[in-house]
Design goal:
Layout: H1 6-21, H2 27-36, E1 41-47, E2 58-64, E3 72-75, E4 93-94, H3 95-98, H4 101-106, H5 108-114, E5 121-129, E6 133-141, H6 150-189, E7 192-197, E8 203-206, H7 208-216, E9 220-223, E10 226-229, H8 232-247, E11 259-263, E12 272-278, E13 293-298, H9 308-315, H10 319-329, H11 334-341, H12 345-359, H13 364-372
Antiparallel strand pairs: 1-2, 1-6, 2-3, 4-5, 5-6, 7-8, 7-13, 9-10, 11-12, 12-13
Helix pairs in contact: 1-2, 1-6, 9-10, 10-11, 10-12, 10-13, 11-12
């Protein structure tokens, strides 16, 4: 343990926790570990490939004298003869713990995989994590270098909890970001505009639908980076609701109740529906300039974003029937839909009868309702953010 002083430990831990926030930063802590153990390579195998599936690739990050050093990369790894499989989790071992020097020297795995990369001495540990399964950590030296010692194994075991903690944090952040991205895409597919604002009403972010609404200036717009309504009376109410969203007390379930209002549009179109919901504070730090509320905007006259393919599968419609249903859901009359689709009115009526039969509805208004309330919009391609 005397090989690592306080400054080295501080530097390594800082690099590890920086890497938890950004996958591109893993090279730094791994390079520090490579120097610490006088290694030629340090590798973290995040996912082993499926040896039964040639298209399945593993995922790893490795540092050393190689292409893509320090980058998280997919890799083919068809060597299922490795002697390092099925080892007890969280136990540091070397090749000498598993076999004699002669057995290791003559093993097909060393000859065909390790020798071309001057990998001879191996110190390894399979790291168990609560949510990511087993991650494999490998430190290697060339044949001309000395083997790993008991002190090396002890130091590796000492650092193991920090590695596990950092990897688990990274996994939790990845999962949270993935879920957040899925929810954001779902909202976009439902044609709901979202605007992220701080406590002063400054816009921090917006999705593609919000951008379209704000750029049109029809009801809502950006003035000096702040969200404003077109008419002074609406703007006063908007400012008041934003302020109240930040100042209101939590309801019975512990969350602040969202505020809502209607925004008049100068074009004369149906008013925009607006809901303002505060983002719960972690209460750990003062969040000046941080996201404080999300503004949901729904344009009642916006076109349906229903996916043709998903709608066909949901309702058992033909392509022609699906196209007509979507036009009707967008507010067109049967005659207008027929004209938009360049089909005869009688053909449109025949399609509508078939649609009624397949969906079990009897009126056009019911058809529009089930389309707008269906999950068809969630099956469309991703919206550009």
């Amino acid at each position: 343990m005397n090989r690592m002083d306080v400054e080295q430990l501080d530097s390594l831990l800082s690099a590890l926790y920086e890497a938890t926030l950004d996958n591109s930063q893993w090279a730094d802590p791994l390079e520090q570990l490579r120097a610490l153990f006088s290694a030629n390579y340090v590798t973290l195998i995040l996912k082993m490939p499926d040896t039964q599936d040639e298209d399945d690739l593993g995922l790893m990050v490795s540092v050393g004298d190689m292409k893509d050093s320090g980058e998280v990369v997919y890799f083919p790894y068809r060597h299922n003869l490795t002697p390092f499989v099925n080892q007890p989790p969280d136990k540091v071992f070397t090749e000498e713990d598993l076999m004699t020097s002669e057995e290791w020297h003559d093993s097909p795995y060393r000859v065909h995989w390790c020798a071309p990369n001057d990998v001879y001495h191996v110190m390894a540990v399979d790291i168990s994590t609560p949510d990511s399964g087993t991650l494999r950590f490998r430190v290697t030296r060339g044949e001309a270098s000395p083997p790993f010692t008991a002190d090396d194994k002890e130091l590796c075991a000492f650092l193991l909890p920090h590695l596990r903690r950092a990897l688990n944090i990274r996994n939790l952040l990845d999962r949270s970001q993935t879920l957040g991205s899925l929810y954001s895409k779902a909202i976009s597919r439902l044609s709901i505009a979202t605007v992220l604002i701080d406590e002063n009403g400054q816009v921090l972010d917006q999705n593609v639908f919000a951008r379209e609404i704000l750029e049109s200036g029809d009801g809502l717009k950006l003035v000096g980076g702040r969200l404003e309504a077109s008419y002074p009376s609406d703007n006063r109410d908007l400012r008041r609701l934003i302020k109240e969203a930040f100042e209101s007390k939590p309801g019975e379930n512990g969350h602040k109740l969202p505020e809502a209002m209607s925004i008049t549009r100068p074009s004369g179109e149906v008013s925009l529906g607006v809901v303002i919901e505060s983002i719960p504070s972690t209460a750990w730090a003062e969040g000046k300039g941080q996201p404080a509320a999300v503004v949901y905007i729904r344009d009642a006259v916006g076109k349906s974003q229903a996916s043709n393919e998903v709608a066909k599968k949901l309702f058992g419609l033909t392509p022609a029937e699906t196209a007509l249903s979507i036009q009707l859901a967008n507010g067109l009359s049967l005659e207008e839909a027929a004209e938009a689709l360049n089909i005869r009115r009688n053909t449109a009526r025949a399609h509508l009868r078939a649609i009624f039969s397949k969906t079990g509805v009897r009126r056009q208004t019911e058809l529009v309702r089930i389309f707008l309330n269906s999950v068809a919009a969630l099956g469309q391609g991703d919206q550009e953010d």
